[in-house]
């Protein structure tokens, strides 16, 4: 699950890669909630992203093994989809975060790519097709990039 089972210093890597990255997501979303307008759908998206950050951060503090238990499955299966759901809700009222239509259009493209990729990935897993972990890594990369994209839109807002 973690891809770091045999690496020396794996606990340090686990804390940096999961715990602190999740905390950055949490702090970013708390700041987003405090510093931007919060309509009904907008706050729902921000809370979903906050929950996703909490789940991601919790991956860094649990003891892990190669076995899939209920906690690992729950965290892995819900961290990214809840984040994607949060991005989906943010797309509706993104103009309350940033006035730029280009950034809203970019966030919509990012969100729908993640939705389509997740559906295709789910179909591959259900039908026992050969699974390529590069696809999952790419979706995580785009998910984390979306936070930079939102932050960049806030910089251009001023």
Structural commentary:
This protein is mainly α and about 160 residues long. The mean pLDDT is about 80. Helices cover about 75% and strands about 0% of the residues. It is built from five helices and no strands. Keywords: Membrane, Transmembrane, Transmembrane helix.
Given as residue ranges, the uncertain stretches (5+ residues, pLDDT < 50) are none
Major sheet = none
Q: Give the overall shape, derived from the CA principal axes.
A: globular
What is the rounded Rg? 16 Å
Number of strands: 0
**Continuous helix count:** 5
Order of helices and strands: HHHHH
Q: How many domain units?
A: 1
Helix proportion: over 70%
- In what range is the share of β-strand residues? under 5%
Mean pLDDT: 82
**Distance N to C terminus:** 41 Å
The helix-and-strand class reads mainly alpha
